[in-house]
Amino acid sequence: MHTDGRHLENNTLIEGDICIVGAGAAGISMALDWDNTKYKVILLEGGGFEYDQRIQELYAGKTTGQRYFPLMSSRLHYFGGTTGHWAGFCSPMDPVDFAKRNWVEHSGWPINKEDLDPFYERAQKKLELGPYNYDMAFWQKGDPSLLPLVKNDSVLWNKMWQFSPPTRFGTKYKKNIVESRNIHLYTYANLVNIIVNETGSAVTAMTVKNFEGKQHRIRAKKFILACSAIQNARLLLASNHQLPNGLGNQNDLVGRYFMEHLEIKSAQLWLFKPSPLKLYAFNFGVTKARAELAIHSKKQEEFEILNGTVALTPLEVAEKIKPAIERWNQEDPRKSGDRFFGGYSAAGKDVHVPVSGTNSYQCFTRIEQAPNPSSRVTLHAEKDGLGVPRATLHWELTSFEKRSIRKIHELIGEEVGRAGMGRLKLLDYLADKNDNTWPDFTGGGWHHMGTTRMSNDPKQGVVDSNCKVHGISNLYMAGSSCFTTAGAPNPTLTLVALTLRLSDHVKKSL
Amino acid sequence: MQRRQFIQLTAVSSAAIVITGIGCNQRHSVSYELLGKPEELAQICDLKTLKEIGMAYRLQAASEMDAGKLATLLLTDSAGSSDSSISDNAFVQSLMNWKIKRDFETGNIVIVKGWVLALTEARQCALLFVNNP
């Protein structure tokens, strides 16, 4: 069922059993999980079914610290959310990502990988992926030519990825949502305030607005914010009319520990003999699975480094592609998207890599950012068109990330040398181990995580192991804002899995 | 495999080229040109790059400044003994390759100008640079 919030009579009261705010990967996944149940599900979307510049501008914000993409274009604000232009890269986190690691301050989720496994399996289907099997041997059965770079796996292992078509939630699931008898989608319904009871222990209502001057009120038994990590934090902080510090922020944690994946070229791999390295190759829209090089958890512990993976791209192709931070520099996500994806298309046309392969590859790192309370989202004095303070993102990296990237590549270089395959050359910015600066091409993956981090201790996290906000009985966070640590893989698969787990929990508690 | 075993397995005879190590007390019966040729690395690096690596390594390892010292180190086994009588080119080349392999196996690695290298091949580059600055 669908209602356009602009066409409702002003001050309409909308009531249901649960209210999900945000119709992106998390919000739609959760709503669909309630389809055909006895419960009335309210799904709120700030935009409509198509891109709307005025709505998109609500996401504009300020950035300080490490250079970052314009906030306005780093998320999409219409039905389907950022799946409207995501690339579909999926892989689950590793068991070590959930563990308390003595060498990573603030690490340790209150849940582990096994807790999420059944939900990863369900998330695979939502994202139109293959079987929930990320074992290299499984994929080699289907294609024996997928050979690892290094056979000795005591240091390196091959972390498999799968690729979603990519699923555009806005088109793929629109019919399911709109035709559902118990899911009530309201478009042009932007959350602007969360109202709590006198003690602040429960949400009593939410206020939504649109640019037609309409304001409506939502009542439900349970409320779930699924608006992305920056917006989840922003909305909790901005709902400060009753509690000056905002909601769930009694310990000054909301917005802190913002994490991104560093995505950055790091080294060159030179092989003595050309090889296609098919196991690591990626062809958008064609490749179903591929591997990236990863470091065993015991070696991570031994060298006290963060978890990261390394993708291999023929150097000739990689050198034609400008860094993402330079291509994705427009406030308008359509313009940034054209520049970004156009860069790949042009490089692919200009360079022909023979089937037999090449002998030089670029090593491109994806690595978790260490949880850092100073890396954070706060409110800016300037307000958006609906009167909500804009977000300021202060993205802050440390020397830990850089040391880890360097060590990961040293280890890969040693293993490649040991295997007699070739040699690895670190890029200049990693050559001096005492240099803690970052080069101009340092970028992220548009992966916003950690602003309402999970911990069973209210002094360490905003939500508990069920994604419920500490101290508020009926408010939950869905998505990557709950991540305690970032892991190495792109977050979509994990955030959908975590949301489906939350969904089960809410069902049991109603 | 120990160096002695390696010698037993791979030694072959050929004419010796006797050169005296400059600035070193030891006489070496093998050419610096041969010693200063990292065979595998030369497959992926041009001469200029190899020399740059050599120059950078000399800055990193100040105690290995002269050719004689480098040659001695290159011909020194893990037990610390140097065999200056080695004179066969093919054998020397095999010995260097074996030392490089062993360096990687034992973690005897250096990073020079960003290259993750076996110590032996870094020294070979340094010798190359010293002989052809």
Model regions low in confidence, pLDDT < 50 over at least 5 residues of chain A:
none
Rg of chain A, rounded, reads: 23 Å
- Give the strand content of chain A: 15-25%
Q: What is the structural class of chain A?
A: alpha/beta
Continuous helix count of chain A: 15
Fraction in beta strands of chain B: 5-15%
**Strand order, biggest sheet of chain B?**
1-2
Structural class of chain B: mainly alpha
Could you give the order of strands across the largest sheet of chain A? 6-7-14-15-16-13-19
End-to-end C-alpha gap of chain B: 35 Å
Which word captures the global form of chain B? globular
* Number of E-state strands of chain A: 20
Structural descriptors:
heterodimer, A: alpha/beta, 6-stranded parallel β-sheet, 15 helices, 20 strands, B: mainly alpha, two-stranded antiparallel ribbon, 7 helices
Detail the topology: elements first, then pairings.
The complex is a heterodimer of chains A (510) and B (133).
Chain A: E1 2-4, E2 13-15, E3 18-21, H1 25-32, E4 41-44, H2 53-56, E5 62-65, E6 89-90, H3 95-98, H4 113-126, H5 136-142, E7 156-163, H6 169-172, H7 174-179, E8 183-187, E9 190-196, E10 203-209, E11 215-219, E12 222-225, H8 229-238, E13 261-275, E14 289-295, H9 297-303, E15 308-314, H10 315-318, H11 324-327, H12 333-350, E16 358-368, E17 376-383, E18 389-395, H13 399-418, E19 422-426, H14 428-431, E20 475-477, H15 492-509
Parallel strand pairs in A: 1-8, 2-11, 3-4, 3-12, 4-8, 5-18, 12-20
Antiparallel strand pairs in A: 6-7, 7-14, 9-10, 10-11, 13-16, 13-19, 14-15, 15-16, 17-18
Helix pairs in contact in A: 1-15, 4-15
Chain B: H1 3-10, E1 19-20, E2 27-28, H2 32-35, H3 41-44, H4 47-60, H5 67-74, H6 89-106, E3 109-112, E4 115-118, H7 119-131
Antiparallel strand pairs in B: 1-2, 3-4
Structure description:
The complex is a heterodimer of chains A (510) and B (133). Chain A is of the alpha/beta class. Chain A has helices at residues 25-32, 53-56, 95-98, 113-126, 136-142, 169-172, 174-179, 229-238, 297-303, 315-318, 324-327, 333-350, 399-418, 428-431, 492-509, and strands spanning 2-4, 13-15, 18-21, 41-44, 62-65, 89-90, 156-163, 183-187, 190-196, 203-209, 215-219, 222-225, 261-275, 289-295, 308-314, 358-368, 376-383, 389-395, 422-426, 475-477. In chain A, strands 6-7-14-15-16-13-19 form a seven-stranded antiparallel beta sheet. In chain A, strands 1-8-4-3-12-20 form a six-stranded parallel beta sheet. In chain A, a hairpin with a 6-residue loop joins strand 9 (190-196) and strand 10 (203-209). Chain A starts with a strand and ends with a helix. The mean pLDDT of chain A is 96. Chain B has a two-stranded antiparallel ribbon. Chain B has a two-stranded antiparallel ribbon with strand order 3-4. Mean pLDDT of chain B is 79; it is low at 1-25. Chain A binds chain B through residues 267, 270-272, 359-360, 409-410, 413-414, 416-418, 420, 422-428, 430-431, and chain B through 40-41, 43-45, 101, 104-105, 107, 109, 111, 113-118.
